[in-house]
């Protein structure tokens, strides 16, 4: 009678419809066998598993499968009252293809005019803090062998000032790759002047140390005037370069954001500007507050992003594009293009939601499907880590990605 019961329990386990959840190539996989209905059955081993890249132990399959395929697996099991006799139960494991592998990665033409690399990264000093930045060509461009249209530029300036500029070239503009590079470099070059920075600094002192409201107001007006001159000069550089190469300035269409900063006795002063849909965000030291430092061209201009190459942005409303911010300290200053913003934040309102930023930095520090980690403490390789992180998968979001973080 005991042998009959053992035989029946083993046959029932053989016949039960056991479905292993699908795995995804290059992503961590784990499946635990739940045997509550078979208390006397034990799994000894799973053969044919090695070819999947997975392992079996502690009653579960785990690991990172390397390639997509349908695998036939043999579960070796036994009954606890007949351990010497093992039986085989056949199951299937489907490993889905990594969506990234379905996209081509065709290098851009190295002989083309205004050639630039498909990706780049940077790490260095920014004031008394550090900065890392990465810019990576999106999958949509890589699939067709097109250029990266995003760009960024970082520069330490005279008088202990620093500037970070980020630009996103328009996909419809034939020379957007040069437009973004030139915009970021040109605005940095404009502020690389002791005379200009000294003038800004004098007015900053009036804003934050003068008791006179008139001097404070005059200081703000003068700072914005100088920032305006820098932006206007950048427009003219783009216009002149386009003409020199027989292009229209529309062929150089690009967004532009920048943060020009210095640490004073009374705090960090951050001068900001933005045209287009790329954000600049400042996060408080205790990570309790976040502030958007620039006006973004979304919502009202849905489907019609504004560019630094549009003469019409230089009207009375341009004053709203400049910001003057002073804080005692901050934990992070972040600039990004929509290739990061769209998949990670989705809506403008989330950019001012501190919980969204906590999730974002949790992602940066390794809580993601790729387990890609950006280490802000042991930061020897932080630029390469950030570049690797920007390769994350997000269905429907395959634009160029640029992210700069002061920390």
Question: Mind explaining what this structure looks like?
Answer:
With 407 residues, the chain is an alpha+beta fold. It folds into two domains: 2-99, Immunoglobulin-like, CATH 2.60.40; 103-406, Phosphatase 2c, domain 1, CATH 3.60.40. It is 27% helix and 30% strand. Strand 8 (119-126) and strand 9 form a beta hairpin. It is elongated, with a radius of gyration of 28 Å. The mean pLDDT is 95.
The CATH superfamily of the largest domain bears the name: PPM-type phosphatase domain
| Adjacency order of strands in the biggest sheet | 8-9-18-17-14-15
- Uncertain segments are none
Report on the biggest sheet. Answer: 6 strands, antiparallel
Decide which structural class fits the backbone: alpha+beta
* Oligomerization status of the protein chains: single chain
> H/E element string?
HEEEEEEEEEHEEHHHEEEEEEHHHE
CATH top level of the largest domain?
Alpha Beta
Strand content: 25-35%
What is the CATH topology classification name of the largest domain? Answer: Phosphatase 2c, domain 1
Report helical residue fraction.
25-40%
Radius of gyration: 28 Å
**What is the residue-averaged pLDDT?**
95
Pfam family, one: PP2C_2
GO molecular function: protein serine/threonine phosphatase activity
InterPro entries: PPM-type-like_dom_sf (IPR036457), PPM-type_phosphatase-like_dom (IPR001932)
Organism: Chryseobacterium kwangjuense
């Amino acid at each position: 009678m005991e042998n009959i019961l053992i035989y029946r329990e083993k046959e029932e386990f053989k016949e039960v419809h056991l479905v292993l959840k699908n795995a995804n190539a290059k992503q961590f996989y784990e499946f635990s066998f739940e045997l509550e209905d078979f208390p006397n059955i034990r799994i000894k081993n799973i053969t044919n598993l090695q070819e999947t890249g997975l392992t079996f132990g502690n009653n579960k399959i785990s690991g990172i499968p390397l390639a997509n395929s349908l695998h036939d697996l043999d579960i070796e099991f036994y009954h606890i009252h007949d351990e010497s006799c093992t039986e085989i139960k056949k199951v299937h494991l489907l490993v889905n293809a990594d969506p990234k592998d379905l996209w081509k990665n065709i290098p851009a033409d190295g002989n083309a005019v205004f050639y630039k690399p498909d990706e780049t990264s940077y790490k260095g000093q920014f004031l008394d803090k550090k900065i890392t930045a990465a810019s990576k060509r999106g999958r949509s461009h890589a699939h067709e062998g097109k250029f990266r249209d995003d760009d960024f530029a970082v520069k330490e300036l005279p008088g202990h000032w620093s500037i970070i500029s980020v630009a996103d070239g328009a996909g419809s503009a034939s020379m957007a790759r040069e437009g973004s590079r030139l915009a970021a470099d040109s605005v940095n070059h404009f502020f690389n002047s002791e005379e200009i920075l000294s003038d800004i600094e004098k007015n900053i002192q009036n804003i934050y140390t003068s008791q006179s409201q008139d001097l404070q107001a005059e200081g703000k007006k003068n700072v914005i005037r100088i920032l305006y001159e820098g932006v206007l000069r950048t427009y003219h550089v783009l216009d002149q370069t386009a003409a020199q190469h027989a292009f229209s300035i529309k062929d150089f269409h690009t967004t532009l954001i920048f943060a020009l900063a210095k640490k004073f006795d009374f705090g960090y002063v951050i001068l900001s500007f933005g045209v287009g849909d790329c954000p600049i965000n400042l996060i408080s030291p205790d990570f309790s507050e976040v502030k958007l430092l620039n006006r973004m061209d979304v919502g009202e201009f849905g489907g019609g992003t504004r560019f630094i190459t549009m003469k019409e942005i230089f009207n009375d409303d341009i004053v709203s594009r400049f910001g003057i911010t002073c804080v005692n300290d901050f934990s992070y200053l972040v600039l990004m293009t929509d290739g990061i913003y769209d998949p990670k934040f989705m809506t403008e309102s989330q950019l001012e939601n501190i919980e969204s930023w906590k999730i974002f930095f949790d992602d940066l520090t390794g809580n993601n499907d790729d387990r890609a980690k950006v280490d802000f403490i042991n930061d020897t390789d932080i630029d390469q880590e950030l570049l690797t992180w920007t390769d994350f998968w997000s269905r429907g979001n395959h634009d160029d990605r640029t992210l700069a973080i002061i920390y």
